[in-house]
Amino acid sequence: MRRRRVTLLLVELLLVVTLATARGPPPPILRPRDGDPFDTLPKSFWQEFSSPFTDTPEGGDTDDSAESLETTTREPQPFFEEPFIATNVTTQLGNHVHLHCRVNDLREKTVSWVRRREDQLQLITFGLHTYSSDSRYQLEYQPPNDWQLLIQYANERDEGHYECQVSSHPPLVFLVYLTVVVPRVDIVDERGGAGADKFYKAGSTIELKCVISKVPQPTTYVTWKHGQRMLNYDTSRGGISVKTDLKPGGAISRLYIANANRHDSGNYTCALADVAETTVTVHVLNGENPAAMQHGGSARWSPIAWATIFSSVSHIFLHQR
User: Fold this and answer.
1) Who's near 226: CB < 8 A, 6+ residues apart?
2) Cα 216 versus chain centre, distance
3) Under DSSP, is residue 13 helix (H, G, I), strand (E, B) or coil?
4) Are 93 and 178 within 8 A, CB to CB?
């Protein structure tokens, strides 16, 4: 019984060897023939049909690809609309002035205004909030991109450097230099002579000319006062007229008072709004020659001039004693 089992195992083994031998050697690997259209396909073409476990192509780097994709999708950076990074702004004393800062593609970045004084920076605004203790400074945002700094009633202390800063990386800075012009006001007589005192003969016409210069924005708002009385629209006395003409960088205003009398003597003030003014004293005299008194060097010394000199010398002499 045992021999029979051994014999059957030997027969089965012999049958397996015989079948394996009958199959012959493995078939050769087929190579594409010359001129085969698949021979011209790039190597990466076959990679697309490979299994998920196939190695990546030579030279391929997934990290580099991700970095390249990140570079091409970077968000735009903020930039100023103005072609230059600095500008000059000029305003008149007492005016309201806006400093403009137009920023495009701001997104989540923040705009701030600072005042530069030598090496010190003073924060004025941050975003839509104003941090200056000076209530004349305000932030006014005008869509779509203008972050305006408003300075009310500009004075000489406001002149200087201002910076509009954007919190990007690196930070963006737009420079503004503000110039505050102080107008000049002078009163001259009909001959163009300046001086604190003007002399006129009773019955003559008082003519005062107010010359206003250094005004970036010319205005006709020029007022005349006799003491505290406004003369521009005065009709109580009669014979009073005011004429104001604009000129480049300023204005000329003339005051005429016909048939002068002693009640017209006093202080006369020419004012440019509430910004600048000057005052002269008018003397209306009986029987004197105004031209001689105003131009004593070319004619003769008036009694008033002699009296003034005598009084001054006496005052100095008494104090020396």
Assistant:
1) 264, 266, 267, 268
2) 17
3) helix
4) no
User: In angstroms, how far is CA 249 from the centroid of its own chain?
Assistant: 22
* Its pTM surpasses 0.85: no
Q: If you write DSSP's letter for every residue of 260-320 in order, what string do you get?
A: --GGG-EEEEEEETTTEEEEEEEEEESS--HHHHHTGGGS---HHHHHHHHHHHHHHHHHH
Spatial separation of the C-alpha atoms in residues 186 and 25, rounded to whole Å = 121
Stronger pLDDT, 292 or 22, i.e. the higher one: 22
- Angle formed at CA 264 by CA 263 and CA 266, multiple of 5 degrees: 100
CB 281 within 8 A of CB 267: yes
Q: Hunting for tokens 């001959």 — which residue is that?
A: 191
Q: Decide if 214 contacts 250 (C-beta within 8 A).
A: yes
Nearest Cα neighbor of 272 from 249, 305, 296 is: 249
What does the pLDDT look like over 209-222, one tens digit per residue?
Answer: 999 998 877 676 89
User: Given pLDDT bands bounded at 50, 70 and 90, which one contains residue 289?
Assistant: low
According to the model, what pLDDT value does residue 261 have? 94
Phi, psi of 123 (to 5 degrees): -70, 130
CA-CA distance, 194 to 189, in Å (whole number)?
A: 7
* pLDDT at 254 > cutoff 70: yes
* Lowest mean pLDDT across 132-136, 149-153, 247-251: 247-251
